[in-house]
Amino acid sequence: MSKQTDATRSAKDSRGRLSRIISYIVNAPFRIVQAVLSNGISTLRPYAPQIIPLAVCVLFIPLVISFSLLAGWSVWKSLSVGWDSPLYFQYGDGVSPYATAQIPPLLPQQRYNIALQLTIPASESNLALGNFMVGLALSTTNNKTLTYVRRPAVVVPPQSSLFFRTPYLIHVEVPLVDSFIAGRSKVVASIDVGRRDRWKTLGVGHERELTIKSASLYGIAVPHGVRGLAIRFPVTFGLISASTFLVILSIILGGCILPTMLRPMSQQNANNGLDEDGFKKESLRESGVLTEGHGERRRRRRSKSNRRSSSVTAVKVEHSESAIPPATSPSPSTRLRRRESKRLDSGSDSDT
């Protein structure tokens, strides 16, 4: 039994040692990192007042520059000269070819010149159609009509040349609306192209429709006011807005960081015995003590001089001399009288 208990104890001891060794090996990296961090923090703690503002600047300056560039880019993008929306015409519904498109978001108070750009084949049917009409209806998403116009157009045959082949495609541009103000950002456009009289008596009737390869509805912003000046120079205004945003953010960042940078300097001056202007307080105190002592000496001298002057002015002044009558022969009946002053002097001597 004793051998079995010894064996179990040794097995438990070996397991415990093995578990301690494994835990020590596993926790070794964490202890190393903790030691490095604690040593680093203790080493950098005296320099924290200088390191923290520097780290804040390094962290926020790229963000400030990025936000400034983003502001300039957003201003430049908002000053876009125009927009373009592709159109896909529908055929075979018994009416003129038509298309509906959602116009890109508009500025409510911006004026736009809207036109239709058509790319059509130079075919005989298109050339034989002659004049046709282009109708444009602009409405809101709630189907409220903002404006409706119809403009005539014609396909002109391309010019032939001796050196170049006759082009197979013809580009037709049809102006529709001038200085249109939507008053809202979301607008829906409906366009129809062709003739409505159907021309059934001519040919086989295919001339009544216009063959279209591609089409797009585009708008050009009309410059007016301050925004018109910005539209004429979008890059310049984008750079100005980015610079303004950068200056404002820099001022805000500086106002937040400068107090934290100046406070440690004032504390260091206080520890070194300096006042806010950088002068030593001890020297000022010593000079103050000296000036106080010097002033006290002056006051004493003045008091002494005042006492002397008062003593000089307090000297007894004799009365003016009076005329002495001539001496007469004394008679036995008359007796000599003492002066009153002598009596007073003798009285004072007796009292003493």
TrEMBL record:
Disordered: annotated span: 273-352
Presence of the UniProt keyword Transmembrane in the record: yes
Protein name: Adipose-regulatory protein-domain-containing protein
Predominant localisation class: endoplasmic reticulum
Bias-annotated ranges (Low complexity): 322-334
Listed Pfam families: Seipin
Regions of compositional bias (Basic residues) in chain numbering: 296-307
Subcellular location: Endoplasmic reticulum membrane
Gene Ontology CC: one annotated term: endoplasmic reticulum membrane
PANTHER family with a match to the protein in the record: BERNARDINELLI-SEIP CONGENITAL LIPODYSTROPHY 2 HOMOLOG BSCL2 PROTEIN, SEIPIN
Transcription found in the keyword field: no
Membrane topology classification: Multi-pass membrane protein
